[in-house]
Amino acid sequence: MYRESDLIARLKHPKKKEKAFSELLDTYHERLYWHIRKLVITHDNANDVLQNTLIRIYKGIQNFNQQSSLHTWMYRIAYNESIRFLNKNKTDFTNALDDINSKYLEDLVQDQYFDGDHIQLKLHEIINGLTDKQKRVFQMKYFDDLSFKEISEVLEISENTLKSTYYSAVKIIEEKITVESTN
Amino acid sequence: MKQENKHKRHQIEPNGPQFLRQDSQKGSLAQVHKDYLGMDVPDNYFSQSKQDILKHVSMVNQNKQTVFGLKPIYAYPLAASVILLLGIFIWMIQLNTDMANPKTIAVVDVDFATMNDADGLITSLLIDDSEINTYVDAFMVENVVVDVSLTNQQLEYLIINSLLIEDSEAETYLKQGILENFVL
């Protein structure tokens, strides 16, 4: 926390801001990227959303009031930017759940930076078949390594709800992937 | 039955260990995403992306902070001063041009003969040099050249009269002289 408050102070200082922002990128750049990538699927989309996110962070740091931790605030910006991107690119025919799933998998397979086998593809399908809440919680907990407290601040859902949601998601994934392996 | 993927990234056993690893068993972020989700990134992506972002925010910073390379608090008053000086300069040029070409200035018709010296000097300042030259030329012609011509002409008449025509006046003078001097 001490290091974070020191970083925030330097980020708000006009002469120290650029150097401090470079340090911020060293710590959070890759983490934010993967958080976004799982939401928007392809590398090119993730790159675009990441650029927008980081610029928003840079411009908005002056008004950051430290009601939450810095990296929670950044994850929230990244999440909102990703959702904004998805809503912008949503087409009418993707409203049905099956259509959403097939569009997701279609985009995934067409991405030149997807190098998965059928098991990984199946995992994507299973995760994408979860409810929105389950999917977000699972991705943030398992892949982004956020604590329940941090996920609670990003998604604005209580910690207890998140914990039960997460464990349900894990159970579903384990069951489905095991079934898949026996088929 | 064990099932391995082509890259042997993870194993799925129906009655074996969990598919999803514990936290302590997970590798780096990139490794986890590659192993489980098959997601990869271009080589050197993060270092290149970082440079691009830093360049972009540096430009944003510069555009925000300076105007013509100066801080706004100095730039705007300086720009306003320059514009004001330019305006005054242009106005002064225009003023000098109007004074040099006074087409709209009324020609002052003055009678130099009735004017005293002081008035004449002051009035002459208000009249364009070309107008004065025109007047002087006219004055020279009318008052000097013509007068001289007339005077010459009168002189010629007197000479001719004295040579060709009986000089009655001379005779009259002589007679009076004789009468005065000899008789009286």
Mean pLDDT of chain B: 70
- Mean pLDDT over all positions of chain A: 88
**Overall geometry of chain B:** rod-shaped
Total number of helical segments of chain A? 9
Specify the structural class of chain B: mainly alpha
Quaternary structure annotation? heterodimer
What does this protein structure show overall?
The complex is a heterodimer of chains A (183) and B (184). Chain A has helices spanning 2-12, 17-40, 43-60, 70-88, 97-110, 118-128, 132-143, 148-155, 159-182. With 183 residues, chain A is mostly helical. Chain A starts with a helix and ends with a helix. The mean pLDDT of chain A is 88. A two-stranded antiparallel ribbon of chain B has the order 1-2. By secondary structure, chain B is mainly alpha-helical. The A-B interface holds A 14, 17-18, 21-22, 25-26, 29-31, 33-34, 37-38, 43, 47, 50-51, 54-55, 58-59, 113-121, 123-124, 142-143, 145, 170, 173-174, 177-178, 180-182 and B 1, 3, 5-7, 9-10, 12-14, 18-20, 23, 29-30, 32-34, 36-42, 46, 49-50, 52-54, 56-58, 60-61, 65.
